[in-house]
Amino acid sequence: MSKSRKIGLAVAQMGPVHLADDRQAVVRRLIDMLKEAKARSAKFVVFPELALTTFFPRYWMSEEAAIERFFERTMPNPQVQPLFDAAREAGIGFYLGYAELTAKGEAFNTAIIVDDNGRIVAKYRKTHLPGHADHKPDAPFQHLEKKFFEVGNTGFPVVETMGAKLGMCICNDRRWPETWRAMSLQGAELGVLGYNTPSLNIHWPEPVHLRMHTHLVSLQASAYQNAMWIAAAAKCGKEDGFHMIGGSVIVAPSGEIAAQCVTEEDEVIFANVDLALGDTFREHVFNFAKHRRPEHYRLIVERTGAGAPLPHDPDALN
Amino acid sequence: MSKSRKIGLAVAQMGPVHLADDRQAVVRRLIDMLKEAKARSAKFVVFPELALTTFFPRYWMSEEAAIERFFERTMPNPQVQPLFDAAREAGIGFYLGYAELTAKGEAFNTAIIVDDNGRIVAKYRKTHLPGHADHKPDAPFQHLEKKFFEVGNTGFPVVETMGAKLGMCICNDRRWPETWRAMSLQGAELGVLGYNTPSLNIHWPEPVHLRMHTHLVSLQASAYQNAMWIAAAAKCGKEDGFHMIGGSVIVAPSGEIAAQCVTEEDEVIFANVDLALGDTFREHVFNFAKHRRPEHYRLIVERTGAGAPLPHDPDALN
């Protein structure tokens, strides 16, 4: 087995951010958790998706109103700069999700990786936007990611920084196996993400416990099948009465949960993750070069939606 | 939600088949389980991988010796015909795995689907062959699938039969997310497979409990992520002293285990599976046509092994 390569890893779950909470208060909470992570000797901390505001896609409003109130035009900006400063001072890198408005006026659901020198070394824009773009007045809340955001144009970036190859995604991306494969095929050793997952499904009466179950089982299988560590940070609890699941986790390449949040509040979990554990899986069961057969995977890129079965004649196979 | 479309589904797990057990005795066991499945009103029963013989890739021998003793040159052949007859009489379809020698002399790890009229309607040849081709004299046993079998040339067939769209794979294929995506992109509603999974990993000292854990978590995530039912049948227990895991299961499109074997012997489990449950997931969270982004999945077919990260410049993303 490979020589161990350990990195102190923290996940900073956030309790609710209400409409009335300003960015200054939110950034103070992030800095508090960064300090707690530092006290456990973390070198990297994962914050949630859209960490600076409430999960605003639940509210019907115009794009202009959303942009005015919830989007960041620059990063860091003066309100977020104290987090960058605190992280650089602590010598800690971080993942942070926020709503991004570009100079060209494009709106994305974005996350960045900031290294221990305070430099933005990677930026990811969410690929798999869930929900809808139309107003659903009869639903208890909206899920307007398809209205407020454009589909990301970055692919799934993998960056080598602070001694680790980090892959990025956001929230709903974690349920799509293509997300993790795109990372592991670039050598990712640790996948990081934030999420906001309403516990109520507005589209059909899905039993609430399944929201936690499918979250965990997706991350566990994806960590294993891609021989990666995965660290996932929730924003959770009741934001102005609208409940979202917690369950922030650090998952090992064995598919085992190494650490898991047990509250729906601001909570830091830590694991001293050995990246070399993934090497073992990459050498054997998931030695891609030896075992993968892309000639049989072509439908994955040739089709978007499901189609008819390919022609198949068992009598011709003799 | 869709109108329910239920099919009585059984999984027939097999206890060990020893070197000394002949095919006649094995076929009798399969027929006994078929009758038990029928008594529970099953319309389809899933038998294991290489169901007719012991898991012979554990033994070092020449290809010729393996073919002579463990492969089938025709299907059905006189020894297996009684199973086909019993199934047709019972009006039950089945999945059966066996070692196939073609007329051209090619050797495959194969499975067939036989419909309720006793007709072979699909044939699958295993794509992801695990293990090695060389002799490992210091290992407690071998895993010579790469020696005895050629890589399958069928892709992952999906056939509509007996009112359901069935997708096929075998054993190690279940750990590869591409397997399930190739099926769900052809509209599969129920994926069926057999497996033989040694509880000891000869390549590295993997904790034994992980063999069961990664088996279950892979099937649960794949069922969910592809909005499919999955039925998996083990051959298990100690074959001439070599132990393999049980854990045969029927998994729902919610990722929940609907039925699971609790022995390491011949054991039939049953579930009255509603194919329409998958429709709900296909309409919403996994509405592929609405949410998939194949333009960001290209590495899956463009690379076999993992490579360097793609170029990424966050400063250019403004």
TrEMBL record, chains A, B:
<dbReference type="GO" id="GO:0016811">
    <property type="term" value="F:hydrolase activity, acting on carbon-nitrogen (but not peptide) bonds, in linear amides"/>
</dbReference>
<dbReference type="InterPro" id="IPR003010">
    <property type="entry name" value="C-N_Hydrolase"/>
</dbReference>
<dbReference type="InterPro" id="IPR050345">
    <property type="entry name" value="Aliph_Amidase/BUP"/>
</dbReference>
<dbReference type="InterPro" id="IPR036526">
    <property type="entry name" value="C-N_Hydrolase_sf"/>
</dbReference>
<keyword id="KW-0378">Hydrolase</keyword>
<dbReference type="Pfam" id="PF00795">
    <property type="entry name" value="CN_hydrolase"/>
</dbReference>
<feature type="domain" description="CN hydrolase">
    <location>
        <begin position="7"/>
        <end position="275"/>
    </location>
</feature>
<protein>
    <submittedName>
        <fullName>Carbon-nitrogen hydrolase</fullName>
    </submittedName>
</protein>
